[in-house]
Amino acid sequence: MSAFRQTQRRKSLFVVFEGGYHGRSVYTSQFSASHRYRALIGDWRVPVIRLPYPDWEQSKFKDSRTYYNYCLDTVNRLTTSEVGGIVTRNGDPDIAAFMFEPLLNAGGIVKPDKKYLEKLVKIFRKLKALIIVDEVFCGFFRTGKMFGFQHYDFIPDIVVMSKAITNGISPLSCVWAKNPLLSYNNFPPGTHSATFINNPLALSAADTVLDRFEHWKDRDSDIKKLENSLNQIFTIIKERSKLVKSTFALGGVGRLLLRGNFAGKVLDIARTIAYKKPVEGYHGIILASTGMASNVVALNPPLNLTEKEKSIMGKLLISAFAKADKMFL
Ligand SMILES: Cc1ncc(COP(=O)(O)O)c(C=O)c1O
Q1: From CA 81, how far away is CA 319, in angstroms rounded?
Q2: Distance 242 CA to ligand 1 centre (A)
Q3: Is the per-residue pLDDT at 1 higher than 70?
Q4: What are the φ/ψ torsions at residue 19 (nearest 5 degrees)?
Q5: pLDDT digits over 237-287, tens only?
Q6: 116 and 143 both lie in a single domain
Q7: What is the pLDDT of residues 25-62, one digit of tens each?
Q8: Is residue 82 pLDDT above 90, yes or no?
Q9: Rounded distance, CA 28 to CA 24, Å?
Q10: What's the pLDDT score for residue 68?
């Protein structure tokens, strides 16, 4: 944030997606969609505009194109007219940054439409906003590519990374930015410093993780196989379960969109589904639901699951949904 404050000094507005999640620390919580992230820290009234939720499956529209055209109309109204209010202060664009996840994580595993996102980037670039991509969840091959933004046709100005860079061993985050955003003048030594950052354990974990990714011989095809396995499991579940409305998988991330807000209950069932009769020694499976999207069951398995582990995952997931169907329908 400091790097970018230097260049966007007189601008105030941030543009994010409805359903976006950018953290729960003091400043980033202001950009996250849900009030729960500001509950303890408070609302600082940082000016934030939230663009329409980029998930047509959860809209009332019958097809994606009509929905995205509708969303685009909304964005055009926001950015081109005084009614929209984004263009303020003597008519100059007042937008500091358009910040987004290439695939919404906590918002319910939503991949924005390619054309829609690329168009938005063009609109906000034209308005001289910085394009910030939050790769904290997507970065390092979660969606099959090194970065989530590589599914689209643009280069961001700032990329924020964390999570998988140390494979969860130790917390670490890092920021890449186009020149001169992080140049000596904009970001002199000491700008970003605190007692426990840059610790050697985190840095050596990151070094190892990056090495592993680089030397993983069949990395891309292995992650593609994982995506295929998720899709195969999802197809079976969708055929059998009335709870499931649609499914989606990309690289090592998947979602099951439910017909109601009972993801939490499905998670509970899944955790102990094989308690009495373990499947190859496994008593259950841990799934994710963010609470923010309580109609979505999310899967983020390790990217290097073996075939055997994938098969166990499938069996546990299929039986969890079979039980959930019996209990809730
Ligand atoms: C997209 C995204 N941004 C940022 C974060 C960092 O969040 P936190 O402040 O809770 O560590 C996360 C964590 O899940 C995330 O998924």
Answers
A1: 53
A2: 32
A3: no
A4: 85, 0
A5: 999 999 999 999 999 999 999 999 999 999 999 999 999 999 999 999 999
A6: yes
A7: 989 999 999 988 888 888 888 889 999 999 999 999 99
A8: no
A9: 6
A10: 97
Q: Based on the domain organization, do 202 and 240 belong to the same domain?
A: no
| Domain identity same for 166 and 240 | no
CATH number for the domain spanning 280: value is 3.90.1150.10
279 DSSP β-pair partners? 282
Residue 74's domain spans which residues? 2-214
CA 255 from centroid of its chain's CA atoms: 12
Query: Which atom of ligand 1 is nearest the CA belonging to 24?
Result: 9
Q: Which residues contact 261 (CB under 8 A, 6 or more apart)?
A: 294, 295
What is residue 259's predicted lDDT score, i.e. its pLDDT?
96
Say what angle helices 307-328 and 263-272 make with each other, to 10 degrees. 120
Of ligand 1's atoms, which has the minimum distance to the CA of residue 25? 9
Mutate to test the pocket of ligand 1, among 137, 142, 166, 175 (most ligand atoms within 8 A of CB): 137
Q: Show the DSSP H helices in the chain as ranges.
A: 2-7, 64-80, 114-126, 200-215, 219-240, 263-272, 307-328
Of 158, 193, 214, at which residue does a domain stop? 214
Task: Report whether 142 contacts 253 (CB < 8 A).
Answer: yes
Ligand 1 center–CA 83 separation, angstroms: 33
State how many domains the chain has: 2
Give the amino acid at 76. Answer: N
What is the rounded distance in angstroms from the CA atom of residue 6 to the CA atom of residue 197? 22
CATH number of the domain to which 146 belongs: 3.40.640.10
Distance from residue 137's CA to the centre of ligand 1 (Å): 7
Q: From the CA of 77, how far away is ligand 1's center (Å)?
A: 30
What pLDDT, on the 0 to 100 scale, is given for residue 329? 79
The per-residue pLDDT for range 169-203, each reduced to its tens digit, is 888 999 999 999 999 998 888 888 888 777 899 99
The atom of ligand 1 lying closest to the CA of 104 is: 1
Whether residue 142 has its Cβ less than 6 Å from ligand 1? no
Specify whether 118 is located in the same domain as 57: yes
DSSP bridge partners of 14: 48, 97
